[in-house]
Amino acid sequence: DFEELQKQLDSRLQNTEMSGAHNSEYQTLEDLERKEREYSEHIIDNMEAFWKQTEKAQQAFLDQSKRSSAKATKIMMDLTEKMIAVESLLSESQDLRAMDIQERLFNWELMVKMIDSLKSYIPEECKCRLNIVSNILDHLTVKNNLSVRQKEELLTDLHKAFWEQLAHFSNECIQQSKDLILKRLECRAKKREEFKHRQKAEQGSLLSKTFHIKDVHDFLKAYHELLEKHRQAQWELEEEDDCKSTEAVADLYKELYSKASHALAELVTELFLQTLPVVTGLSVRECELLKEEWQENLVPQLQKWETHRQRRWKLFQEQLLQEKKLWIKEYALSAVMQKHLSEKQEKIIQGVVNRLGCLSDESVNYILQKHRLLLCSVLTRLTLRRVGMAALARMRMSRKKSLLQELREQHILQKGTSPCQDEDQWQLQKAVESHILEEEEKLEEETQQTHLEFHQQLVTEIQEALQFLQQHMEQVIGQTLLQHARREAGKKSSDDGQDFKERLVEAAVESVYGTSNNINRLVQNYYQQLGEIIEGYEGKKLQQLKSLQAERGERNRLRKKQENELALKEKQTKGLLDVSSTVHQRMVLQQKKVLAQFELQQQIRLESLKQKLLGLHHLETELENQLKEAEQDFVSELAALARVPVAVKKKPSKRSKPAGEKTNSKKTFQSPESEDKDNSYENIQEPPGLTSGLCRERLQSPHEGETEPRKNSKMLKKRGNR
What we know:
Strand content: under 5%
Order of helices and strands: HHHHHHHHHHHHHHHH
Number of strands: 0
Low-confidence stretches: 576-580, 648-722
Largest sheet: none
């Protein structure tokens, strides 16, 4: 069944991955968000099905093994303890994996930025070369060596040739880098398959070993360490392959850049040494000097652009460092929220268990263990969902962040290269800075709105998961209460002396020693004693309830007095509060105050109910003991009266009397015939329940008024029914 659950999960995840797949190699953000949501739903559903199946498997095992209740509870607690250990290991592993993934994302951004920087070499060089050529041609036009029309034609042809080379360079970069990456991915897939075979072999070797039941924790630790070792090895393999792939692409781009740069230089050389001498009439030597001038002007332009590129790279690294700090802060806040949620849930289940109050320590520990296990499982999957949502939120805002970052870089570079010379430039820089601030505020507002949207979605999913946790724990608590009730009912219904009571009733009916008056007096005295016991119980119960009510009233009075004193202090210090405190802060303080008062009142009510329950339980125990004693006396006197030969059972202990109550040494009324037999029957001790036994149909006689024993039978039947 567990394997079937795993197959269903794999099938659903595969369907989710394939859904919405198009021929395009790209995915939209909407597709990613939908897939992530469906993935989380499948994971939560699988978790619920897994724990339900676990309960079924446990119950089936216990039903087939025919274990005792205590042994079954111990087995389930041991299993729960081991599952908690497994969930803790999985949670730690998931946290480490999330941090590794986040670090890899940052590394990928660095790789992408580096490749984009290499791709920008040729476009920037094209601009620099064209600008310098244009300046030289303008100078020739001013000297009348070149007409304006000729200059425009030359620039147009050169511009066209340059951008053809640029397009060829871009296409070659894309195509050759794709081919390179595909080859490396094929090699990675082969390595991964080999790696998987080695992993399965090592896992099979470990699983084939025989572990004693006491060594389960050692086995779990060893198996988890093996899985972590495999994961880390595969992770390092992928990291190494990513670095090598990036280096290979970088080398490819440098090679293509070198070729493109050489082609551009050839075009410029052709312009100066072949075209210009024909068009302008200048000598070849003069054209060579123009080319040398072009080269001299090109070097500082390229150096300037390289300086700008390095400055952009530094700004990007600073931005990435800020994002890392922000991610660490968000991770810490998430850990705090998870801890708060865990503590709140544990407090709730602890309150529920405290309110029950009737379960044994073993049952309470089992409930708390089960809750801890399910809570850990739920939080592990919700943490995974939170990590996914954080990535999606970052992806949603990445484009706007990139645009804003480019705007900042341009402004910073412009300020560094061309300081303000006049009022107009100063005003322009001020306008740009104001625009950047506006864009930052918009981006911050949209980011908060995006995080709020994902947070509300996460809260909804948390509530759904906690609803499952609550339903499952209700079943666990209900089963525990049912087992407890069955045990208590079994204890109360155990009646080892039932056969003796039935024989005693038959013997009393047939006995010739008991007269109607004696039995009537015996039963009346027994009823009188029962009435006195019940009356005493009702009086003590009423007195105790009044006492508890008085104590509760006193506590309420003291609490109100303390609240009034606290309110007076708050009113006195209210004028000292900062006037600038917002309405929201005051509302939060008032909310906390009301919640604290509510929790205090709930605690007081709970303590009062506990005292009431304990008191009533004590009185009921006392009543039950008194009724048992009265019944035992009645049994002994009836046996003595009927002179029934029975086996003598020694009393296990003296009759218990409540504290503060004097022991009544006077026995119940006995018939004169049985007074001389007290020494023979005074040690007779029988279990409770005879009073109801006397009312059985065995006391009913089909004949009326024939003999004295038959009259006694009718009288016993009537009294017993009463």
